[in-house]
Specification:
- The complex is a heterodimer of chains A (about 475) and B (about 90).
- By secondary structure, chain A is of the alpha/beta class.
- Chain A is built from 17 helices and eleven strands.
- Helix content of chain A is about 40%, strand content about 15%.
- Chain A has an eleven-stranded mixed beta sheet, with helices on both faces.
- The N terminus of chain A is likely disordered.
- Chain B is an all-alpha fold.
- The mean pLDDT of chain B is about 85.
- The chains are: A alpha/beta (about 475), B mainly alpha (about 90).
């Protein structure tokens, strides 16, 4: 590690996992309130540099921790995430805590309700530490689009943590939370997980409720967990997953036992490697990490075979048409009427809308709203929006076809290791092209995850992506566990 | 386009946005290389999986009265309100 400082000075003991917290509570060696207070102490030290947390919910966290300690003291059975300190990406509603979505337009907004995922975490015993920084409205790959300043990568402070869930990834990497929630529309969980060296899971579209999520692109947005290892990620996912009456897009399929599935043997699984993901532009150290992982899976008894996803090169342009179109529609609700910022000097409704949005939105958000408005406008709708919807069908068919031959896939997560802060801010196309390995799975709705697979010679984290069939998180997590152990 | 999107751009934002959008649209033009004649348009994932609408999250919930968030709590977040309605500047521009 060349520049990693933040973690060294803040970590004194071996860091907690969901298992260690639980064992500690059961044996009386860990108190949830002490653990939460220790996290707040570390946040106070590290956050001025890392900028992970935008707001802390200390009262709510300490009240929950004390309840968990009371349960443990009585010897009552403890819920799954009892006493586990978690952070929540700032695009999710947490009652009474600010929800800015990284935007000035929502400054001061305190949602009067909890997102379903937040309520589920707390009902499972988790201690909600606070809200985590992200790119404005989850639009970005570097966390540099937050109106509240960029997050730094805790492994290398001159590097970006990835985005848009940069704060969520960095908080787990820096031991400022045991687990966290992020959202992924085109890679926003998986890419920062890879950049920060933690595990990040994109569940299948429809697997986890989005009630209480500030929408970016509704046919793509998903909520998922970050954790330090695959077993913890599986544990959190099991708490989050399942139908929610408040989200019509959530699926009523039964939820598999993800943690139990981890112990099933791996031998005989067929693992595909899409040829299109190993082409030009892939960093050689990341390529060797993927090859090392594939050798390891072969040695563990998997059948590793090449597969083809022929429409891969069209995924980035398809994504940027569809995501921006949906964003232009979703973000029309930020108009200064019901919540957040209002331009006070405006004399009429129309100027109030425009001035509020001019003051409240940052450059990337405006860029995407403009692009989305353009591709939906009369005369361009068929050429751009409808065309992209058709290509989305082709991209999804590629995956359905390939998943007849294999049970999971392994690919690079990012074309390069984390880049430097400021390196790509003036070049949106180059920033978008960095999403090449993430957006196809987003469009197809399949599940995916990033698993740490070593570091570069310079000490920068490398992530490997595991992809699974629709609603087959169990197999994906099993392969992820094997990758982690290599 | 900015007017359609209810956005106002500052004088220095205009050339930058034009440059960026042209670059992005140039990249998006690659989609025209593909012949998509007869390919159905896909709006969301459930429709590709062949399950029942409900299994794939495509079915709306029953239209029944359920408790909702307290109005006072919602109105507290509004920039301007009389407690029952949202207040806005003059609607008709002359």
């Amino acid at each position: 590690m060349t520049t990693g400082a933040a973690t060294d000075k803040t970590t004194t003991t071996k860091r907690a996992t969901i298992r260690s917290v639980r064992m500690g509570l059961e044996s009386g060696t860990v108190q949830a309130a002490t653990l939460a207070a220790e996290h707040y102490d570390r946040i106070a030290l590290a956050n001025p540099e890392l900028n992970c947390y935008l707001a802390l919910s200390r009262d709510r966290a300490m009240a929950q921790a004390e309840q968990i300690d009371a349960l443990a003291a009585k010897g009552d059975p403890l819920p799954t995430l009892a006493g586990v300190p978690v952070g929540v990406k700032d695009v999710l509603a947490m009652r009474g805590a600010p929800a800015t979505a990284g935007s000035k337009i929502l400054e001061g907004y305190l949602p009067p309700y909890d997102a379903t995922v937040v309520a589920r975490l707390e009902a499972a015993g988790a201690v909600l530490l606070g809200k985590l920084n992200c790119d404005e409205f989850a639009m970005g790959s570097s966390n540099e689009n937050s109106a509240y300043g960029p997050v730094r990568n805790p492994v290398a402070l001159d590097r970006v943590p990835g985005g848009s869930s940069g704060g969520s990834a960095a908080a787990v990497a820096a031991d400022l939370a045991v687990a966290s929630l992020g959202t992924d529309t085109g890679g926003s969980i998986r890419q920062p997980a890879a950049f920060c060296g933690v595990v990040g899971v994109l569940p299948t579209y429809g697997r986890v409720s989005r009630y209480g999520l500030i929408a970016f692109a509704s046919s793509l947005d998903r909520v998922g967990p970050f954790a330090t290892d695959v077993r913890d990620a599986a544990t959190v996912l099991e708490v989050l997953a399942g139908e929610d009456a408040a989200d019509a897009t959530s699926s009523d399929r039964p939820v598999d036992g993800y943690v139990a599935a981890l112990d099933r043997p791996l031998a005989g699984l067929r693992v595909g490697v899409p040829d299109e993901y190993l082409g030009e532009g892939l960093d050689p150290e990341i390529r060797s990490a993927v090859e090392r992982v594939l050798d390891g899976l072969r040695a563990a008894g998997c059948e590793v075979k090449g597969v083809s996803l022929p429409h891969t090169r069209y995924a980035v342009p398809t994504y940027y048409v569809l995501a921006t179109a949906e964003a232009s529609s979703n973000l029309s609700r930020f108009d200064g009427v019901r919540f957040g910022l209002r331009a006070e000097q405006a004399k009429t409704l129309g100027t109030m809308f425009r001035e509020t949005r001019e003051e409240g939105f940052g450059a990337e958000v405006k860029r995407r709203i403009l692009l989305g408005t353009y591709v939906l406008s009369a005369g361009y709708y068929d050429a751009y929006y409808r065309k992209a919807q058709q290509v989305r069908t082709l991209i999804t068919r590629d995956f359905l076809e390939a998943f007849r031959e294999v049970d999971a896939m392994v690919t690079p997560m990012t074309p390069t290791p984390p880049f430097r802060l400021g390196e790509k801010v003036d070049d949106p196309v180059s920033m978008y092209l960095a999403d090449i390995y993430t957006v196809a799975a987003s469009l197809a709705g399949i599940c995916g995850m990033s698993v740490p697979a070593g570091v570069t010679a310079a000490g920068l984290p490398i992530g490997v992506q595991v992809l699974g069939r629709h609603f087959d998180e169990a197999t994906m997590l099993r392969v992820g566990l094997a990758v982690e152990g290599l | 386009m900015a007017e359609l999107a209810s956005l106002e751009l500052t004088a220095d934002e205009v050339p930058r946005m034009q440059r960026d959008l042209n670059a992005i649209l140039g990249h998006i033009a690659e989609l025209n290389q593909l012949d998509t004649t007869g390919v159905p348009a896909m709006a969301q994932v459930g429709e590709m999986l062949g399950g029942s609408a409900n299994t794939e999250g495509g079915e709306l919930r029953t239209d029944a009265i359920r408790p909702s968030i307290d109005r006072a709590a919602v109105m507290r977040e509004a920039p301007e309100t009389d407690g029952r309605f949202f207040k806005v500047p003059k609607v008709i521009e002359r």
